[in-house]
């Protein structure tokens, strides 16, 4: 199981413009599932394509298994990549689609059947081998694409938004399939997505990118509970973190930590008056949108996320609070995390 490493990896498409990827330092862990997460244009796919050998870096190095691979072809890097489109050959059967990389690598033909059956059994598609891609569901096509990748027994898997073409229900089941597959195979995997739910659910670690820069790398819990800057704070979380400017600071707190004061057992808490302007009932919870009333935060828009148990009326002001330990502090100029400090809300 090879470790992927990048050193100051940079990609500039047009001279004089900001790089699509800017001096990214990364080292995967053996056998981990690492997620590149970011919005469109963040550089996550460009970074993945450079690791794969499909894009040439402007500067920096890529290492796989401790060996610099900048000048090696994708095949020589012993990686396998699954794309958003799956790129199956429509005129070939599932069997021939899976076997295609073996033929391209000149693997002896008598080994094809054994390898194809091994890969297809791992993904539960043994009964589909004689079908054509048009006869398959989206989830089945995704598994065929994965089987075609693993039949090569690569040292690294690279997955570029492979679930984005599936509907919500199928995405959930396909995500579970991918997680089970990774546990069985144990190959180092890098997965690109713009979907924070996928990232949080699947990743051993998550690398958040924006405008070609790594904003934070850590476990899903790290990046959610302790964001490195305001971008990470608001990109992760649905609804996103509430941010309130206060002098030279920006104070943040998650909607689920903003609760009725009467329900809060913590003694160290910050009290607010909160006027509810909108109530969304989502089955298991409420999403309340409104504004803070009074003090330095007067008029600031905030969102609360609460489990059922109370009723709320639009236009009514309630006593809410946030546990002091859940407040996050960011520098107003740099928007980066800073140590907690005592502040006045009045």
Looking at the overall shape, the CATH architecture of the largest domain is 3-Layer(aba) Sandwich
Distance between the termini: 56 Å
Radius of gyration, taken over Cα atoms and rounded to an integer in Å: 24 Å
Structure summary, number of beta strands: 18
Quick check: average pLDDT?
A: 90
Helix/strand/pairing class, anyone? alpha+beta
- CATH fold call of the largest domain: Rossmann fold
Q: What amount of the residues lies in strands?
A: 25-35%
User: Unreliable runs, pLDDT <50, ≥5 residues?
Assistant: none
Strand order of the largest sheet: 6-7-8-3-9-10
* Rough outline: elongated
CATH superfamily of the largest domain: P-loop containing nucleotide triphosphate hydrolases
What does this structure look like?
The protein has 346 residues and is an alpha+beta fold. It has two domains: 4-225, P-loop containing nucleotide triphosphate hydrolases (Rossmann fold, 3-Layer(aba) Sandwich); 240-331, OB fold (Dihydrolipoamide Acetyltransferase, E2P). It is 23% helix and 31% strand. The protein contains eight helices and 18 strands. The strands form four sheets. The chain has a six-stranded mixed β-sheet with strand order 6-7-8-3-9-10, sandwiched between helices. A hairpin with a 2-residue loop joins strand 11 and strand 12. Helix 3 packs across helix 4. The radius of gyration is 24 Å and the shape is elongated.
